[in-house]
Amino acid sequence: MTAEAKQHFSRELLHWYRRGNRDLPWRKSRDPYRIWVSEIMLQQTRVDTVIPYYERFMAKFPSVQALAEAPEPEVLKCWEGLGYYSRARNLQAGARQVMELHQGQVPDDKTAVAALKGVGPYTSGAIMSIAFNRPEPAVDGNVMRVLSRYFALEDDIAKPATRVKIEKLAAELIPEGAAGDFNQALMELGALVCTPKSPSCLPCPVMEHCEARMEGRETELPIKSKAKPPRPEARIGVIIEGSGEHQGKVLVRQRPATGLLAQMWELPHLLVPKELEPLLRFGDEQLTEQAPLGGLLTEAVAGDTGLLIRPQRQLMDADHIFSHIHWKMRVYKADLGAINAEPVGPMAQMAAEAAAVYTAAGKQQAELREPYRWIGPEHMDELAFPNLFLKILRDYWNQDL
DNA sequence: AATTCGGGGCG
DNA sequence: CGCCCAGAATT
C-alpha cells in the first residue's frame, strides 16, 4: 500500500465525514463526561439502542459528581435492559475515581483516562480523540472491518493481537489536528457504508483505492473466526403469588454482586439436572407428570426462604440467549401453603419433605430474609430486572395469567 | 490467549 | 436462525 493511498484514505474520509454526519445526542457538545458515558454505552451496543438510554441517563446523572454521588441501585435501574451491567457499575466507579483523583474533571491525559474503571484501549482512545482531539487511535469492530478491507488485511480480527496491529495502522492515518473527527469518520463509515454484510462501495468516499474492492473481495474481508456456540441450560423458574399482606405480589430475589447479571433482580429459578431434562419435553402435560421438577422448586424455595410453595401449573416457556449460555426456562405458577398445613395434590410428598426441611431449620414464613422480596406491578420501577424477567413479569401481570 | 460478561436487529 | 455490534475484565 502506497503512502499516497494512505493519504487519500485519511483526506477523503475526513472530508466525507465533515460534509455531513449523523446528528447524535453525544455530538452536541464535547463535554468529556458526555463523550465518556456515550462510549461506555456504545460498547457492543447499537446506536439506535443506546439513544433513549443515553438521554435518560444524562438527564438523571448530568455530571460526574451527580453520577458519583448517586445510589448504585439507581444507576443500575437506569441501565436496565441495556445489558453488560458491569459497565454501569464500572462507570460509576470511574466517576468516583474522577472525583477523588481529578477534582471532578475528566483528565486530558491518556494514562489517567485509561486507568478509569471500564475504560479499555478503545474507550480511552475514543475519549482522548473525541473530547480532547488527541491523536490516539480508537479501534472498534467498525474500524477493524474498514481497515481490513481498505488494506486487504488477512489477520483474524477475532484475535486480540490483530486489534493491536490495527491500532498502529490507525494511529498513522490520523490527519494532523483532526483526531476526533477522523476517528468518528472511521466508525461512521463502518456503520453506514462499509457494513458487515453488504458494503455499499459505490457511494464510499475511499472506494478508489480500497484493496478489497479492487480485488472483488469486499464481502470476504475481514476474516473472523467463529465464536463457540452458547451452551444450553435447562432451567425452571416460578412465579409465586403471595397471600395475606402479600396478596397480588410475587416473590423476587437479587442476584449476587459478581458474575452473570450481577445485582440484578429475578424470579426464583434453578438449573435442571441433566438426568431430569427429559421431563421438560412434556409439552402441555399435567404438572403431575413433572412432580420431580415441582419438587425441585419447592425444595429450593423452602431452603432459601422457609416458604412452602405449591406449584400449580405451567405458565410459559422463555428462551434467553447470552453470548455464552442459552437458557431454556420453563416458568411455573405457584401459590403458598400455610405453615404446618397438610399438603394436598400431586406435590404432596415433595411438599411435605420440604416442609420438614424448613420446620427443622426453625424458619418462619413471615421472616423472609434478603435478598428475597415481595413486589407488585406498582413498584417495578424500584428494582432493576434483566429483560428476560421483565418480559415474563409484564406478560404475567398484563395478561392476568 | 481464552472466557466471561446482554440484548437486539437484520438478511 | 446465524451473525454482528462504538469492548472490558478476568483468568
TrEMBL record:
Domain HhH-GPD stretches = 41-192
Q: Name one GO molecular function term.
A: oxidized purine DNA binding
Q: Which cofactor does it need?
A: [4Fe-4S] cluster
Q: Which InterPro entries match?
A: A/G_AdeGlyc_MutY, DNA_glycosylase, HhH-GPD_domain, HhH_base_excis_C, MIG/MutY, MutY_C, NUDIX_hydrolase-like_dom_sf
Q: Where are the transmembrane segments?
A: none
Q: Which residues, if any, are the signal sequence?
A: none
The note on cofactor binding and number reads: Binds 1 [4Fe-4S] cluster.
The top EC class is hydrolase
Looking up Gene3D superfamilies in the UniProt record yields: Helix-hairpin-Helix base-excision DNA repair enzymes (C-terminal), Hypothetical protein, domain 2, Nucleoside Triphosphate Pyrophosphohydrolase
Q: A GO term (biological process) for this protein?
A: base-excision repair
EC number of this enzyme? 3.2.2.31
Catalytic activity as recorded in UniProt: Hydrolyzes free adenine bases from 7,8-dihydro-8-oxoguanine:adenine mismatched double-stranded DNA, leaving an apurinic site
Pfam families, per database record: HhH-GPD, NUDIX_4
Alphabetized, the UniProt keywords read: 4Fe-4S, DNA damage, DNA repair, Glycosidase, Hydrolase, Iron, Iron-sulfur, Metal-binding
Tagged with keyword DNA damage: yes
The answer, when asked if 4Fe-4S is one of the entry's keywords, is yes
In the record, the note on similarity to other proteins reads: Belongs to the Nth/MutY family.
The protein's job, in short, is: Adenine glycosylase active on G-A mispairs. MutY also corrects error-prone DNA synthesis past GO lesions which are due to the oxidatively damaged form of guanine: 7,8-dihydro-8-oxoguanine (8-oxo-dGTP).
PANTHER family assigned: ADENINE DNA GLYCOSYLASE (PTHR42944:SF1)
What name does UniProt use for this protein?
A: Adenine DNA glycosylase
The scientific name of the source species is: Paenibacillus algorifonticola
